[in-house]
Amino acid sequence: MLREITLGQYYPVDSLLHRLDPRVKLAGTFLFLIALFIVNSWTAYIFLALVLLLLIKLSNVPFSFMVRGLKSVLFLLLLSVSFNLFLTPGKEIFRFYIFKISQEGLHIASMMAVRLILLVLSSSLMTLCTTPNELTDGMEKGLSILKKLHLPIHEIAMMMSIALRFIPILVEETDKIMKAQMARGADFESGGIVHKAKAMVPILVPLFVSAFRRAYDLALAMESRCYQGGEGRTKMKPLHYERRDYLSYLFLLIVLALSIGSRFVSLP
Amino acid sequence: MNNIEVKDCTYEYVRRDENDEVVEKLSAISHLNFTIEEGSFVCVLGHNGSGKSTLAKLFNALQIPTEGCVIISGMDSREEANVFPIREKVGMVFQNPDNQIIASVVEEDVGFGPENIGIPTEEIWKRVADALDAVNMEAYRLKSPNHLSGGQKQRVAIAGTLAMEPKTIVLDEPTAMLDPSGRAEVIRSIRELNQKKGITIILITHYMEETVDADRIILMDQGKLVLDGTPKEIFSKVEELKSLRMDVPLITDLAHELCLSGMPISEGILKEEELVEELLAIFGKDSFGEEEAASQAPTLSLEETENEKDKEKEKDFILKVENLSCIYQKGTAMESYALKDIHLSIKRGSFSALIGHTGSGKSTLLQHFNGLIKPEEGEISVHFRKNPALILQDKGFLFWKGKKRKVEKEGVLSFREEGFDFQGLRFKVGLVFQYPEYQLFEETVFEDVLFGPKNQGLSLEEARKEAEEALRSMGVEEALWQKSPFELSGGQKRRVAIAGVLAMDPELLILDEPTAGLDPAGREELFQVIAHLQERYAMTILLVSHSMDDVARYAEEVFVLNQGECIRQGSPEEVFSHKKEMEELGLGLPQIRAFLYSLEEKGLSFPKKNTVEEAKAMILSAYKKRRGGENA
């Protein structure tokens, strides 16, 4: 089950999106999210969905792979949709027992669903075509202004990239530990909440122990390869903008402008 | 020229209490003196806890000696300014392949080191390409490390140090967590670097076979250097090595045994070819044991009774698998068989072994055995000695779901039976995973072992009794029982973890690579304990192993798995007689058997045996016969 998380994973193919400067992709995702929350008409949503579809097409990441990432947030999606669906007051259109659905509720819930789906898809699109290292490089350089405020941007970026690298490893490890404890008769399924919480101890303790061991090992490995923080480091893949990056910025601004504009004209 | 000089070097671990006062000092290394020549290939041996890893860290200034000094290419590691230049000169590769790869793409990981030391961009790209080329990993440069095998990951780690253009690479048990093919890949790469690029190699290992090509072996014991010499010199001292909890390659052992029994064979033989030559010089081209083999071949009638016996035994299985298949991602384009039409039966009270290379479906099969994966297609049935009470029945009434009650049922039980209790099954089929010590979690050793029996629903008193017995039979001393499991040594942790499974009193004990990562003496001791379990408690043992020597030595029955199919089962003799097949599968043969085959190729043939003892007896009797013949 845990293996299906595609959020935060890199999909290694070559495409225009993969080649873009990570700063563009970071800014792009950010702007796209803003656009998502600005627009409020269906036409605009369809427009943004089409933009996203175009980007997915350009990224060469199979669509089915992207959709799989949605599974992990399905619960959250259903929860927020049903809250909006049932709890929004307004003109009643459907009633079942104590549940009633209002027209406004239906409208808000479906908008919410579309918004969330686009949100998840767009952010996983970014991580799927940006390696964690590029991502951190992008963050580091893009936010380097903050260094002047003595914020440890390089360190934060490094921590993020390591976290991303170790997610699949720790997921696998959790799976192994769970099975090992089940082989010793541990029962994770039955019982109430208290029992279930207690049953997690045999998983969490070994997981933490192992995470610390890995952290120690990794620190040694990094030190032995002369890591000493961001000072004096060169880059294997230094960031510099190319024509395609400027064009992408332009494209993004147009999308954003259209989104903002959509609020001032009445659209269905 | 001397590359590394260790001068009167001592390293102490200091443990302090909360008030920062020194509680105890443990010296990991004491007063070491030696030098390592540039371009040489040095192996460091020593049992677990002998100070090898500490020594490795001293070489590249990850640790600074408490006394004395380490000088690398003229730089003293005690001086702060030298630390990074030293680390540039001396690269390190560690044991765990996952924990030393920093980036999520192979090429970026290899570039990590050069980035740190401020190499210009174009130069980094060149170095990355060269480094990956040197370990034959250029085809994987854009892959994610998570998709590589263990051996490939280690080669990436080697490339990562190589890209910093070091003069020396120190490898701290780089092959301990790998399967045999991964081990061979890594060792081949290391050797090439040494020979082609003249890089000094310091290899720390537990596998004696890896050391035979070294220029020099250093043997450590309790932080001191006890033996130092060429492999030939070191391995001539078989008895001394054994007293230091070390091992010798099996070929060396055989040669030594023959020599002790009076055959004119020189000491310190390391490789197959050497012993082949020596034996050829003694016997010439000849063929032995054919009459013997002929007399051993059973007559037809005998064979028939054997068959009947087999059928008898067939009934006496503890676990039987029929037509078992397991399909991953069924119904999608990526559908693939993890297991395909498996038939096998494990005899009660036997010591069996399951072999197959990584990814052959072994672990999927094992998880079927104790119900962690439930059979989708095919049938698994069990037949336990003690009443298993594996069937659950609801005592409920209409909609009210009652508490489940265990119903006793004798005889053969199928997993498909109504209400089969998989939870209960796990107490009967004990499954010890690889590196079981990673599952320890309680505050004390004893509490941890109690976990299983408690889950079983035993009373505290009964559970304690089981735990005590399990700990005793695994040879865990009582003094350790109230300690935290995290304070124990690796070998002790492993025993405690196995005791945790044993405490549930299983009838079938499955061990997945139980000796991985242990030193030779630790491996030997653990096998003794396991063999003892089989004898004393008539426990059925299923061993999963990559070591054909261990399999040949302990197992009565071997199952060979390849691509999800059980392609062969039989006695070790029978399975290993399919030489070509075993080699094609990448599993190989027991070393002694392989040696006897190469002897045969040179024209001297003996009946094929698997262990040192058998081969020794056979060669000796041939020798005596020959001598007798000459004298007459």
UniProtKB/TrEMBL annotation, chain A:
The membrane-topology field of this record reads: Multi-pass membrane protein
Q: Which UniProt keywords apply?
A: Cell membrane, Membrane, Transmembrane, Transmembrane helix
- Nuclease: present as a keyword of the record? no
Q: Which PANTHER family does this entry report, sorted A to Z?
A: SLL0384 PROTEIN
List the transmembrane segments: 29-56, 68-87, 108-129, 149-171, 246-265
Example GO CC term: the record gives: plasma membrane
Membrane as a keyword of this entry, yes or no, is: yes
**Protein name as annotated:** Energy-coupling factor transport system permease protein
InterPro entries associated with the record? ABC/ECF_trnsptr_transmembrane, ECF_transporter_component
Give compartment(s). Membrane
Pfam families per record:
CbiQ
From TrEMBL, chain B:
Q: Which family does it belong to?
A: Belongs to the ABC transporter superfamily. Energy-coupling factor EcfA family.
* Protein location: Cell membrane
Q: What is this protein called?
A: Energy-coupling factor transporter ATP-binding protein EcfA2
The reply on keyword Zinc is: no
Single GO molecular function: ATPase-coupled transmembrane transporter activity
Keyword Lyase applies? no
* Record-listed E.C. numbers: 7.-.-.-
Subunit structure, interactors included: Forms a stable energy-coupling factor (ECF) transporter complex composed of 2 membrane-embedded substrate-binding proteins (S component), 2 ATP-binding proteins (A component) and 2 transmembrane proteins (T component).
**Role description:** ATP-binding (A) component of a common energy-coupling factor (ECF) ABC-transporter complex.
Q: Which UniProt keywords apply?
A: ATP-binding, Cell membrane, Hydrolase, Membrane, Nucleotide-binding, Translocase, Transport
Taxonomy of origin reads:
Bacteria, Bacillati, Bacillota, Clostridia, Lachnospirales
**Organism whose genome encodes this protein:** Oribacterium sinus
Q: Report the superkingdom from the record.
A: Bacteria
Which intervals of the chain form a coiled coil? Answer: none
In which broad location class does this protein mainly occur, judging by the first location in its UniProt entry?
Answer: membrane
User: GO CC annotation: what is one?
Assistant: ATP-binding cassette (ABC) transporter complex
PANTHER family attached to this UniProt entry? ENERGY-COUPLING FACTOR TRANSPORTER ATP-BINDING PROTEIN ECFA2, HEAVY METAL TRANSPORTER
EC primary class: translocase
Using the record's annotation, list all stretches that form the ABC transporter domain: 14-247, 319-588
Looking up InterPro entries in the UniProt record yields:
AAA+_ATPase, ABC_transporter-like_ATP-bd, ABC_transporter-like_CS, ABC_transpr_CbiO/EcfA_su, ECF_ABC_transporter_ATP-bd, EcfA2, EcfA_1, P-loop_NTPase
* Membrane topology according to the record: Peripheral membrane protein
